[in-house]
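Form P-L/3: holo structure prediction, ligand heme C.
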Amino acid sequence: MYNKGTIIPGLIIFVLLVTFPLWFNAFSTASDVPKVELPPGGEKQCVAPAAEMRASHMVMLNEWRDEVLRDGKRTAVTVGGKEYRKGLQMACMECHTNKEKFCDSCHLYTSVKPYCWDCHLTPGQAKKETH
Ligand code: HEC
Ligand code: HEC
Ligand code: HEC
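OUTPUT (holo model):
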């Protein structure tokens, strides 16, 4: 004999589990970008408007690298009245001091793995090296 008392709830649970991706996506928009941690130092502006940074920070970093290394142009950028020397560690990471909670939270989500950190130090590593 089948036991209706356990089959029906069992079926309901089964259907819910199988369709989980469907209704889960309906309630949370799949296009949500991860929440990134803004600079803990309290800076309010980036080197360019946020939307532009989101779209093309990779291009900017490449341009900066070429300017500094090929052309020797170590110009500074001024943000909110303060000067930053062009560079990954000298500019970006001065404000975005938590690579893990900033850069990585997006990159993990989008499966991008910049190889920059093979050579460049994250603020966390830099701290360890000097202490
Ligand atoms: C093979 C090692 C290596 C890798 C990998 C690497 N870099 Fe560099 N990068 C260097 C060295 C060495 C310098 C020169 C440092 C100096 O002269 O100040 C440099 C300088 C730079 C500079 C100019 C100013 C500065 O010192 O920050 C930028 C910007 C830069 N790299 C960005 C990047 C980015 C973005 C990536 C990843 C896409 C990357 N680098 C990957 C070794 C590397
Ligand atoms: C002077 C401090 C400062 C420097 C230097 C800086 N940032 Fe920012 N960055 C910020 C702030 C503050 C925001 C948030 C701005 C906003 O929401 O309007 C931001 C936003 C961003 C965003 C968009 C994040 C989002 O909301 O989705 C990216 C990507 C980014 N920065 C990357 C970089 C990179 C790469 C560099 C180096 C080329 C850099 N930043 C240098 C302060 C800085
Ligand atoms: C708002 C999300 C977001 C944040 C925050 C962010 N990135 Fe990215 N980053 C991306 C995306 C998306 C790509 C891939 C873009 C593409 O392939 O067109 C990318 C690509 C890159 C690349 C090129 C890698 C490659 O292999 O082509 C570099 C370098 C890079 N990011 C550096 C940084 C650094 C350094 C930070 C922190 C200071 C940072 N990003 C923060 C979203 C982000």
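COMMENT: The radius of gyration is 23 Å.
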